[in-house]
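Help needed: design a sequence for this.
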């Protein structure tokens, strides 16, 4: 791609060291106008400094968008209808945020007449793939600039030297500076790098930011009730809440009770194994509760089919294929399965544990106590029928035993 062909680029911009340098680098290397886009997806940071930094760098079009409700409603909640977990442990906190950021970037490119988009993801990680697959799915002819794959500023030392040379302000944090690479949104906060690059080393206690240590969590458990409608939580303790409100509330409550920590070595799409630590308090509660309400409202074969397809669905999200036709097709099936997933789940949150105390659905439950009972079922189930059922299913086993 010829650098001089770019007239205007939309940069996914946080205002941190990397994207501040990328902003200046784009202006110099491509001699183009830069539009900055900062997404508020619940990371809990003050975003006004990003506006001031972009303004100081000569940016005229500065977008800072509150996307928390869209993130929760249109991305996180649909994913949790599928009970999606990558490699048995990862609740996809970073993965599910990227398609929304890509979507808004492309929308801004259309609004401003930009011919390119840019991101600050490195050439070794998953995010470059997630961002760019989203870009191309939504605007096939868009040009993508990925500075980490072009420049030679491949160390923090070089980045700082570049910042000093070009007068780019670098925040000097007081006290202990986190040694970790972190990413946060309404669903989770992640930690990579530092001591975590030694897979035998235990994560430091003071690394965790959202969750109380289970050992130090309250001795009195928190009891909560979640109300479901079509597979989504619509109320907590009978108080109606929006999706983002549900997540913010559960993050606080579950985090206070030591819930949501994970320490994982995962397989990145690019082929690298990477260790990451994650705090996903609300997501941990949501997954447990959703499976509980599905246990009484989903047909057995529907539930089993969902479980068989879930790893494929989770891998699509992890690898960046949210906008793919196969994910959309699977989502339609998943959403259709949720039409009767209505009711309530009662949970106990206690020292890192999410314990299901009860589940009920007054209109859609498939659990029939009259049939399931160990007491007299008044003829609702003829136990003698089981003999033929067993013999028919044993036929192939008996035949194979003779060979």
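Sure. Designed sequence:
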């Amino acid at each position: 791609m010829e650098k001089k062909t770019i007239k205007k680029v939309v940069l996914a911009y946080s205002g941190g060291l990397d994207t501040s340098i990328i902003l200046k680098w784009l202006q110099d290397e491509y001699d183009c106008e830069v539009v900055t886009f900062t997404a508020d997806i619940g990371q809990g940071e003050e975003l006004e400094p990003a506006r001031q930094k972009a303004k100081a760098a000569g940016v005229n079009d500065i977008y800072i968008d509150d996307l928390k409700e869209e993130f929760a409603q249109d991305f996180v909640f649909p994913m949790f209808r599928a009970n999606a977990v990558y490699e048995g442990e990862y609740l996809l906190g970073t993965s599910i945020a990227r398609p929304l950021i890509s979507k808004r970037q492309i929308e801004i490119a259309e609004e401003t007449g930009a011919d390119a988009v840019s991101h600050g993801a490195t050439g070794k990680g998953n995010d470059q793939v997630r961002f760019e697959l989203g870009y191309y799915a939504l605007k096939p002819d868009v040009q993508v600039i990925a500075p980490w794959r072009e420049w030679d500023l491949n160390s923090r030392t070089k980045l700082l030297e570049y910042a000093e040379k070009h007068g780019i302000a670098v925040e000097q944090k007081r006290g202990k500076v986190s040694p970790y690479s972190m990413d946060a949104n309404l669903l989770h906060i992640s930690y990579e790098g530092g001591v975590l690059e030694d897979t035998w080393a235990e994560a430091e206690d003071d690394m965790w930011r959202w969750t109380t240590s289970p050992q130090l969590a309250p001795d009195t458990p928190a009891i909560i009730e979640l109300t479901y409608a079509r597979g989504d939580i619509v109320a907590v303790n009978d108080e109606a809440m929006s999706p983002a409100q549900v997540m913010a509330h559960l993050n606080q409550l579950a985090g206070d009770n030591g819930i949501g920590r994970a320490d994982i070595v995962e397989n990145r799409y690019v082929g690298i194994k990477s260790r990451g630590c994650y705090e996903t308090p609300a997501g941990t509660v949501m997954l447990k509760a959703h499976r509980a309400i599905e246990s009484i409202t989903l047909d057995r074969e529907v539930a089993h089919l969902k479980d068989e397809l879930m790893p494929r669905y989770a891998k699509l999200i992890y690898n960046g294929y949210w906008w793919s036709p196969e994910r959309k097709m699977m989502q339609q099936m998943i959403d259709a399965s949720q039409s009767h997933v209505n009711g309530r789940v009662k949970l106990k949150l206690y020292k890192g544990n999410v314990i299901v105390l009860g589940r009920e659905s007054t209109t859609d439950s498939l659990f029939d106590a009259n049939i399931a009972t160990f007491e007299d079922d008044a003829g609702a189930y003829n136990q003698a029928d089981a003999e033929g059922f067993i013999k028919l299913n044993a036929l192939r086993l008996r035949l194979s035993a003779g060979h």
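DSSP finds twelve helices and 14 strands in the chain.
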